[in-house]
Amino acid sequence: MDTERAEAIVLRCQPVTESSLIVTWFTREAGKLKTIAKGARRPKSPFRGKVDLFYRDEIVFLRSRRSDLHLLQDCFLEQPHATLRDSVEAMTGASYACELVDVVTEAEDSSPKMFELLAATLAALQIVHGRSVVLLWYELQLLAAAGWKPQWETHTAVGKVLNSLAGTSIEGARRIRLSTEQLRAARELLWGFWDAQVGKAPRSRGLLATL
């Protein structure tokens, strides 16, 4: 059976034996998929230092004919996003970004646009300034890409904020300054829309709201 290659970002890592991991990836080519990385937890594993949360890799995998758990054969590290581990704020933001794409996607449903959104957001979250606004921007773009593009009332202050974010780039979002009250109001409205449309609130939202 032929192997497949994909650009991939690690969403989750789960120990499955004393030596192996199940890794959930979000890939450009195949969407969200799971692989088993045999021996990845061993000190001399060829996967050592290449598979961890938020890592962006090129992966080579053998697709299973019997289940949705495929075999990871090789892995080439492209971007570890190392600074996302420097603070609770950065870790929480990155975890939230990964969980959102996990929630809105089905297994092995390709969405190159969502992959690029996640990749750009993780890169942007490495910069300390503007993380909260970047995450609002990302959530708006992700909803639109998933087919749930919200329409906000233009006569309200919070509606104007969300419309501005929805219509700008990630670089433009970083330049938008929000007060604590503006951020709270924007999150409340956006998260209410998310819960109503998607039907599942991300678990990491509670921690994000405290930062």
Structure, described:
The model has no long low-confidence stretch (mean pLDDT 95). The termini are far apart. The longest helix has 19 residues. The radius of gyration is 18 Å and the shape is elongated. The protein folds into two domains: 77 residues, OB fold (Dihydrolipoamide Acetyltransferase, E2P) (Beta Barrel), CATH 2.40.50.140; 128 residues, de novo design (two linked rop proteins), CATH 1.20.1440.120. The protein is an alpha+beta fold and 211 residues long. It has a five-stranded mixed barrel.
Main β-sheet description: 5 strands, mixed, barrel
Strand residue percentage = 15-25%
The assigned CATH architecture of the largest domain is Up-down Bundle
Low-confidence residue ranges: none
Radius of gyration: 18 Å
CATH homologous superfamily title of the largest domain? Recombination protein O, C-terminal domain
Can you count the beta strands? 5
Total discrete domains: 2
Could you give the distance between the termini? 48 Å
Class by alpha and beta content: alpha+beta
Strand order of the largest sheet: 1-2-3-5-4
Class of the largest domain in CATH?
Answer: Mainly Alpha
What oligomeric state best describes the polypeptide chains here?
single chain
**CATH fold call of the largest domain:** de novo design (two linked rop proteins)
The average pLDDT is: 95
Shape category? elongated
Order of helices and strands: EEEEEHHHHHHH
Alpha plus pi helix count: 7
